[in-house]
Amino acid sequence: MAQIDFETLTAHAKSFAGLTPEREALLVEIGPAVSPALPGITEAFYATLATIPATATFLEGRLDLLKQTHLRWLGGLFTGPFDAAYAKAMYRVGHVHVKVSLPVEFMAGGTALIGDRLIAEIDKIYQDDDKLRLEALGAINAILGFSLIVMQQSFQNSSLHEELEKFLKITGMSRNLFNNLAAAYSK
Amino acid sequence: MRADMLTSILQELNGTSADIEASGIISTDGLIMAAVLPQGLDEDRLGAMSAAMLSLGDRTAQELGRGTLEQVLIKGAKGYVLMAYAGQEAVLTILAKPNAKLGLIFLDVKRAAENISSLI
Lengths: 187, 120
Prior knowledge:
B: Beta-Lactamase; 3 helices
């Protein structure tokens, strides 16, 4: 992975996604109420992915492991902390997605699927408290947005890196030569 | 000191033929080691582009079964660019006029490349 300033990336992604300290605190506060629904959300998530031809092939032979990882991450959405270490972990997810050649839309599509399920749960849990329901939905939207921004940043960087490596291998150019060529045309 | 000697080889090369307009010695990673260029020509671009072209030429010669690369020649409406290895670590690039006598230039460039190679 490239050298990334995760503090800066975290601040940028939080600001963009609207993940405020108040929303972070609310996510932790509603965690105990939401947690029992999370295993079902993970099951539903992978059941949906299995029906999509473009993603189903990536699940074969490792579904149980993926589900464990997914559930652990899902639980983390309601425990925090949402700091640079969290961003680093999400960044790694984007990088791994490139390594296994997952389609780019997988991350946004997957986030939408999870958001959809979480919205339904929140709606059910807080059906008698409109204010809390709206605030909880806002907080969930923000943490999912934050996570997605970091993953997409990583996906883009890793994709560019892989393409460049291919180019260098094909042309026989060294990394130094490429850097010098780029620098010569950046003036 | 070495840079002066390299520059001297380039000045001599440029002097052998009125058709040679510019010349440069570049490391294989694209950095200029010495150059005798007209004003307005960007040294860094010439260096990086020459090394990149030679690298690509090297790969092309290998892929297409042409053996060890000797030189890369580019012809444009306004003249030639000729690139050749000067040893393992350097590239000699010259710019020549459109009506240049290439046979003589090839010989001069080969001789200069050998001299450069012995210095590097």
